Amino acid sequence: MEHSYDALIIGAGIVGAAVAYRLAERGLRVAVLEADSVPAAQATAKSAAGVRVQFSEAVNVRLSWASIQEYRTFEEVFGVSSGYRPIGYLFLVPEGAEAAYERALATQKRLGVPVERLAPGEAKKLADFDPDGVAFATWGPADGVIDPHLVAHAYLKAARGRGAELFTETPLLRAGRRGRAWRVETPAGSFTAPVVVNAAGAWAGEVARRAGFELPVEPVRRMVFMTGPMPEARGLPLTVDVATGFYLRGEGERVLFGRSNPEEPPGFREGMDWGWLEPTLEAGLARFPWLERAGLDQRASWWGYYAVTPDHNPILGWMPGVEGWVNAAGFSGHGVQQAAAVGRALAEEVVDGRAHSIEIDPLRYERFERGKIVQEKNIV
Fold this sequence. Notes:
D-Amino Acid Oxidase, Chain A, domain 2, FAD/NAD(P)-binding domain, globular, alpha/beta, FAD-dep_OxRdtase, 8-stranded mixed sheet, oxidoreductase, 2 domains, single chain
């Protein structure tokens, strides 16, 4: 069978779902092709669910703040809550890194987002930590968490309500440009459309290769650990020890924590890396000694993939030299917090020819060709 549409979305995670909804809202006939048996089961479901405005680059601040605004009022539009909880993000800035974080703070304040500079003593009122070596903290009271799985499904339901179609167990096997349209071959038949949006997450690089070109997006495995019940979890904001990259937050009566392994090789490696637990805890205990009382809940811990680019920032917009191909990939762990705004911006890109609600030029593929990668400092 051959199916014809105005746009094909590859991937039904939170980003693909948001783009699908906004394109359908603009009147396009949209199909979402998902390789898995259910939507939003990979990085979206396995995310640590954080949303924050505390970035150093203006484009990331704008995308994240616009997304938080949408998640705040989500129920008014979609009939279900996004699960948004402003538990806050607290960055513990080490001595020696003050200048970079002062500049980031100035950028955030210039853009009008809620963020504060706190002395270590003030920050300790929000989260108990050893202040040794901490110069100051930055606090985002509107930062927090959402339910990304619920949000993705709400976008998909709304998209389908506007005529979009979802095809699961439908991986892209091959794709090629035929005249004015792309032809995408799948086990469920072929799909044609003038526009393809690559929102395949960790698989975005492979999807591009199957379409005949290279996109610098690689999968990198990440671990999220969970403690058993402990009193310190109550009201604990997402707190990042910038010196080590260790982070934690409260999740009900438990503490969720993790730290990216800089030595983790790219690739589709599966399963928990329990060997990374000891280095993670070593970094965490130095800053949060009370974690010594925590018991680990192995069954509640999990792993998932980041879709990583060379500069750990997404690739958005039209692919140069590849007609009708739009990138929405490589978020490097920031997809949940930017999905809502990216959905709007990329719908503008497709329908109007160029995103205009938010200037996405710094995140276009061309930055790699020009040697102007995004120098984002607030990477966790």
